[in-house]
Amino acid sequence: MGHFTAFLSLLLCISFEVSASSWQPGILSPRRPTFQRSLPCTFNGTTGFSQLKYLNSSCADIILSNLTVPAGVTLDLRRLQPNTTVTFDGQTSWGFQEWAGPLLSISGINITITGAPGSVLNGSGELWWDGKGQSGKKKPKFFQAHALINSSISDIHILNSPVHVFSISDCHNLTLTNVTIDNSGGDGPGLGGNTDGFDISASTNITIIGAKVHNQDDCVAINSGANITFRDGVCIGGHGLSVGSIGGRGDNTVANVLFEDSVIADSQNGVRIKTKHGQNGTVTRITYKNIRLQNITKYGIDIDQSYGATGQPPTTGVPITDLTLVNVTGTVGGTGTKVFVNCGEGSCSAWNWTEVAVTGGKNSTKCLHLPVGVWC
Ligand SMILES: *[C@@H]1O[C@H](CO)[C@@H](O)[C@H](O)[C@H]1NC(C)=O
Ligand SMILES: *[C@@H]1O[C@H](CO)[C@@H](O)[C@H](O)[C@H]1NC(C)=O
Ligand SMILES: *[C@@H]1O[C@H](CO)[C@@H](O)[C@H](O)[C@H]1NC(C)=O
Ligand SMILES: *[C@@H]1O[C@H](CO)[C@@H](O)[C@H](O)[C@H]1NC(C)=O
Ligand SMILES: *[C@@H]1O[C@H](CO)[C@@H](O)[C@H](O)[C@H]1NC(C)=O
Ligand SMILES: *[C@@H]1O[C@H](CO)[C@@H](O)[C@H](O)[C@H]1NC(C)=O
Ligand SMILES: *[C@@H]1O[C@H](CO)[C@@H](O)[C@H](O)[C@H]1NC(C)=O
Ligand SMILES: *[C@@H]1O[C@H](CO)[C@@H](O)[C@H](O)[C@H]1NC(C)=O
Ligand SMILES: *[C@@H]1O[C@H](CO)[C@@H](O)[C@H](O)[C@H]1NC(C)=O
Ligand SMILES: *[C@@H]1O[C@H](CO)[C@@H](O)[C@H](O)[C@H]1NC(C)=O
Ligand SMILES: *[C@@H]1O[C@H](CO)[C@@H](O)[C@H](O)[C@H]1NC(C)=O
Ligand SMILES: *[C@@H]1O[C@H](CO)[C@@H](O)[C@H](O)[C@H]1NC(C)=O
């Protein structure tokens, strides 16, 4: 009996593999695959995409193998069963269409998301890039992780995102390890824009370790949330490690953030906190530790309480308190500025900067309301 069931499951599994590979164009509805909980559920090619609708609770181990996602639709992995593993294998690709995306959406509890060695999620951003970022051609955002709880994302390699890459929102206890975002092909005029690496909001206990990001906007942008760590990262080409912009959203509190042991190179800014002009919120207990700056073109360190209204006097509605910079060193390029601190009166306090040494570029003459112990 036991042997017979095992044999039958094996047959069923084989019948799925056969149905997947023997699918021919023109057959409207691919055969419903049969899943066995002890075996991985593999989806490949375009057939694999259309069979994803048959995913069920037997699929604890999902393999997406060279998956081709049609234009204008999301690879929708929301509401996965708890304890599911998703592995991207080979190249995952998406068709071209002007739409808002996302290309991929994942949510669930205790989910493990990983990329097999050599795997790539290819957004083919070059088909959208027009130098206008979030305006111009309508571009799909890439990777939506909303309500992804107690989960991990590792060894994911993203290539050429049309616009923003990771949107992390309403996530708790999420670890992202060894994620690569390679949008280097979008460097230069008329190409990639607003290709933020990790946008984080309304989330707690988020840890990003070993990320490599080459893009054209913030490497990380934390709009709200608490207990967020970014460590052992490399950010190239973008706008730096940012807290903000804060204000004017549903959640306007950022607390307990640590950026540590990371390099920011060939970027507009290095360390950056931006709070919106005329808005309310709080930014507290932010630490940048062991941060190396290299060839920063605008501001090595940029703390701005007039964000969105450059030139207007800074406002005090989003106080920045307990900001620690320790061992933040490196260089700013010729036309850049070492440090810019633009605070409202009394709205920046309890800052502790030690071993901060930025060389090259100019000194700002426009800093306002510097807290005690901070130079500009
Ligand atoms: C899907 O799998 C079948 C059988 O393993 C293989 O022949 C086919 O090339 C695969 N398709 C893609 C797009 O990888
Ligand atoms: C998630 O995993 C933890 C143990 O790691 C377990 O206690 C919890 O019940 C799991 N949650 C669900 C919804 O399965
Ligand atoms: C998920 O796995 C954890 C153990 O790691 C277990 O406690 C929990 O019950 C599992 N959840 C489900 C829904 O099976
Ligand atoms: C994906 O497709 C490539 C090229 O067709 C092939 O070499 C590779 O084996 C496939 N990978 C998987 C995981 O199916
Ligand atoms: C996050 O993890 C902590 C510690 O493991 C646990 O106490 C907490 O309940 C988890 N949060 C959620 C939303 O599951
Ligand atoms: C991340 O990469 C580092 C260095 O290559 C490696 O030691 C570590 O095991 C990797 N971690 C994961 C979860 O893949
Ligand atoms: C964050 O982690 C801490 C420590 O493990 C835990 O006490 C807290 O409940 C977690 N927060 C959430 C929202 O899960
Ligand atoms: C942040 O982490 C600390 C220490 O682990 C914990 O006490 C606190 O509850 C966490 N905050 C939230 C909002 O989960
Ligand atoms: C400095 O960074 C810019 C991009 O921000 C790049 O164009 C330039 O080549 C870099 N300069 C050096 C000397 O690496
Ligand atoms: C900010 O808070 C102040 C004081 O509570 C309030 O008067 C003002 O309307 C708020 N501004 C915004 C944009 O919400
Ligand atoms: C300071 O940061 C650099 C990386 O920028 C690191 O190599 C060095 O060990 C750090 N120094 C201390 C004292 O931790
Ligand atoms: C400032 O930060 C340094 C390095 O983390 C620490 O040693 C020192 O105690 C802090 N000073 C204050 C006044 O908190």
TrEMBL record:
Where does the record say this protein resides? Secreted
Specify where it is mainly localized.
secreted
Q: Which residues form the signal peptide?
A: 1-20
Q: Does the keyword Signal apply?
A: yes
The protein's name in its UniProt record? endo-polygalacturonase
What GO terms describe the biological role, i.e. biological process, of this protein? cell wall organization; pectin catabolic process
Catalytic activity from the UniProt record: (1,4-alpha-D-galacturonosyl)n+m + H2O = (1,4-alpha-D-galacturonosyl)n + (1,4-alpha-D-galacturonosyl)m
Q: Name one Pfam family in it.
A: Glyco_hydro_28
Class of this enzyme: hydrolase
Matching InterPro entries: Glyco_hydro_28 (IPR000743), Glycosyl_hydrlase_28 (IPR050434), PbH1 (IPR006626), Pectin_lyas_fold (IPR012334), Pectin_lyase_fold/virulence (IPR011050)
**In the UniProt entry, which residues are flagged as the active site?**
239
> What are the record keywords, sorted?
Cell wall biogenesis/degradation, Disulfide bond, Glycosidase, Hydrolase, Repeat, Secreted, Signal, Zymogen
Instruction: Say yes or no: keyword Iron present.
Output: no
Species: Diplogelasinospora grovesii
